[in-house]
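Changelog note: in this version the structure field was regenerated for every chain. One regenerated record is shown below for reference.
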Amino acid sequence: MGIQIIMFLLVTVIALILFKITRKEDEATKLARLKKLKEKEEIKLYKSIKKNNRNNKYEYNQNTCCENNINNSIAFEQFETNPTTGLYICGGVDLMGNLYGYDNH
């Protein structure tokens, strides 16, 4: 009787292990499932943006991107250099920690 219980448990464990091994997704199936999930999330995002901005006549367009014109967005004062070291100054000190016009190193 004890051997039958041990054999039953052993067969059950082996069956569960084989079931797990055969159920593993291959990489292509997993990527396809994740892609489908991402598409659903993007559609949900599109619908929520369109709904929230209906009064503003704004529509979400995936093909538009933010444009950054360096001449318009950055003041030239940001590229000031310390005359003694030649390093750029940010917040009143250069990259080595020297104040404007000083060279402590």
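Spot check on this record: Residues 62-73 have pLDDT under 50 and may be disordered. The first strand starts at residue 89 and ends at 90.
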